Amino acid sequence: MTADHSGERTPLVDLQCEAHTYPDGTVGIHEIDFSVYPNEVVALVGGNGAGKSTLLEHLNATLVPDEGELIVDGTAITEDNKAHARKAVGFVFQDADTQLVAPTVLDDVLFGLQNYGITGEEAERRAREALATVDASHLEDRIPHYLSGGEKRLIGLAGVLVLNPSVVVLDEPLAGLDPERSRLVAKRIRQIHQEGISVVLSTHDLEFAAEIADRVCVMADGNIIESDTPQAVFYDDELLNKANLRPPTAVRIAHDIGVDSTAQPVTEADLVSIFSKT
Ligand SMILES: Nc1ncnc2c1ncn2[C@@H]1O[C@H](COP(=O)(O)OP(=O)(O)OP(=O)(O)O)[C@@H](O)[C@H]1O
């Protein structure tokens, strides 16, 4: 973890966004002050249209604020150096088809490297390594378009990891995946975190958010209305009501059976650990 002279952590990404207005006049997000710190997993939660994707797309300058600033690894991002943001902040889209463009899976992962001038044997070695880290080596000759949704998501992730980003952003990483694929993607996200890469993701699955996140940001009407630990967020009924969210199952069970309120279990594993002590 890095620290500045005041002893506070220095963010890897710092976004100030007064507002982002889409061409049709819709304000996607407003008054956003959002930072990503080293070695953390942040989950954005909130109802449909709350602004999660719009915020995420600002983190690698896919979208830019009407007024505001994006700073990545200490560098202010402008029209001229967006490539810095794209490389440092890898983005895995929910709709992987928008990301996978080459004729084969291996070519696709190589494509990202070529954009940064890495070619030949070095590029192939790194691309194969990235595919191996997402358990997708067996897919390297396949046509990306015909892969399953879960496989596409993993290849999108490999295409991002190959560039050694400081932050990986995933928009709804589990959407449309079967339970097995969800577990695989969640496992890979945990591994990325263990390797010291920060992760920011959006999700409608609050069980997943409770399991994976160090910090949960609740969004409503284009704004972050709370940013805190999963315990603080998921035990704040008023906040959840405001954002139209239902607490994760473990929290509802804890309420129903009257678990000691100081324990604040948010995951199934937390509940099991409480029961195994009683
Ligand atoms: N391309 C666009 N043009 C106009 N308005 C848009 C566009 N994309 C998003 N919006 C609007 O911006 C607001 C925020 O949308 P966004 O997609 O960021 O929300 P979200 O929290 O990701 O929603 P969901 O959970 O449904 O994916 C919504 O009002 C949405 O209708």
Descriptive account of the structure:
The chain has 2 domains: 13-100 and 166-247, 3-Layer(aba) Sandwich (Rossmann fold); 248-278, no CATH class. The chain is built from 11 helices and 10 strands. It has helices spanning 52-58, 82-88, 105-115, 120-133, 149-161, 179-194, 206-212, 230-234, 237-242, 249-257, 268-277; strands spanning 13-21, 27-36, 41-45, 67-72, 75-76, 89-92, 167-171, 198-202, 215-220, 223-228. Helix 3 (105-115) packs across helix 4 (120-133), helix 3 packs parallel to helix 5 and helix 4 (120-133) crosses helix 5. The radius of gyration is 19 Å and the shape is globular. Bound molecules: adenosine-5'-triphosphate (ATP). Adenosine-5'-triphosphate (ATP) is lined by residues 22, 24, 26, 28, 46, 48-54.
The CATH architecture term of the largest domain is 3-Layer(aba) Sandwich
The CATH fourth-level homologous superfamily of the largest domain: P-loop containing nucleotide triphosphate hydrolases
- Whole-number tally of structural domains: 2
Gap from first CA to last CA: 37 Å
| Ligands, ions, cofactors | adenosine-5'-triphosphate
Largest sheet features: 6 strands, mixed
Query: What is the strand arrangement across the widest sheet?
Result: 6-7-8-3-9-10
CATH topology of the largest domain: Rossmann fold
Number of helices: 11
The assigned structural class equals alpha/beta
Helix-strand sequence: EEEHEEHEHHHEHEHEEHHHH
CATH class of the largest domain: Alpha Beta
* Average pLDDT figure: 91
Q: What is the alpha-carbon Rg in Å?
A: 19 Å
InterPro entries: AAA+_ATPase, ABC_transporter-like_ATP-bd, ABC_transporter-like_CS, ABC_transpr_CbiO/EcfA_su, ECF_ABC_transporter_ATP-bd, P-loop_NTPase
Protein name: ABC-type transport system ATP-binding protein (Probable substrate cobalt/nickel/biotin)
Membrane topology: Peripheral membrane protein
GO molecular function, one term: ATP hydrolysis activity
